[in-house]
Amino acid sequence: MRRGRIVQANALLLLLLALFSLPEVSSAAQMTVAVHPFLAQGTSFHLGATVGDIVSTSLAGNRDITLVERSRVAEVARQQRLAMSGVVETATAAKAGKLVGARYFILGAVSRFGALLVATARLVDVESGRVLASFERTSKQGEDETPLVSRNLAADILAFISGDAPARGDPTSDYKYYLYEALGYYNLGEYRKSLPFWEKMTQLSPRNGLLRFIVAGLHFQTKRYSDALLAAQQAVTWEPSFAEAHLLVGKAYFLLGDNHKATAPLDKALELDPKLVEALFLKGSAFKNRKRIEEAADFFLEAIQIDQAYIPAYLALGQLLLENGAADEAAGILLSALQQQPGNGNLRFLLGTAQIMRGNLQGAKEQLAALKTIDAALAKKLEDMIPKQ
Q1: CATH ID of 1-19+166-272, from 1.10.260.40, 2.40.110.10, 3.40.50.2300, 1.25.40.10
Q2: pLDDT tens readout for residues 6-33
Q3: What is the torsional sign of CA 205, 208, 214, 219?
Q4: Contact 239, 255 (CB under 8 A)
Q5: Out of 23, 120, 237, 252, which could bridge 229 as a Cys pair, Cβ 3.0 to 4.6 Å?
Q6: pTM listed for this prediction
């Protein structure tokens, strides 16, 4: 926990430095964009609409973009008898865009190739009728990564239209304004109130990995683990060497109950930073949940060797040893931990349990006496476990 707070504080400082080093940029002119429903090819029929919806929602959050309602696009197509279903020709898209007053028209498709899911989009300049850019995002996990692929595709489109760097806006929609508001709530510990302002900033800097990491961390703090996972995956998309972001992906998977998927991002975090003790601890926890006891114990022990003050690893290793009948080893580990944090009730409870298992009732009573001044509930639980003489 201590290390995580330091990392978050450093991340915020870096963001501030990055912000104030940005050149003065004038705000981009308001742009009107129309999005055609994405075509589904070789995949679920609803998937095209889902990807199109996510892309549209992401674009609609940008202050410099006005999104044409899809019903308006469909109505114009019907009135003008334009072929707006299936594969749309660029010329047809340009004509429809002019009729609805759009500056750009986005055409897209979602296709399956074996296990791969590929989302593509074309950005049509309505005035010239030319395709200005093409975009592609691929999922190796099929439809499971649809939200991630869709949001990354939208971020690429946003970055092309309005740029990666935040432009100056009016006083209540400026990047600095959002940052000050976000930090104000963040420093008060009001993470839910802080979150919308960070998300506004991601709309202005769509491929900023640090911002995505902060958003992921806030979702994690508020126990919205699926949202945290998605934002952390976006962070590593644009910052692949960001060890803490890979760690957050693993943490989110772990708390969503997917120990298997948690392993790969934790491995990547440790590859980038071998001394990342929380990654070692989580790998140990994941292996424990998968009944791979010896490997779990090795990871917990490695975390302790790197950071002797990291109490979660002591607790996890002590508990693991007790569950497997190794009370002597558990007692040794827990005694070492108490030197670091003598007021930790969980440590004293586990040590008291180890002493009971070893037949050292006097040692258990010593832990009980100390525990009564720390945690009455745990003291009562330990007292009930001590055999009556």
Answers
A1: 1.25.40.10
A2: 445 455 555 555 554 554 444 445 789 9
A3: positive
A4: no
A5: 252
A6: 0.83
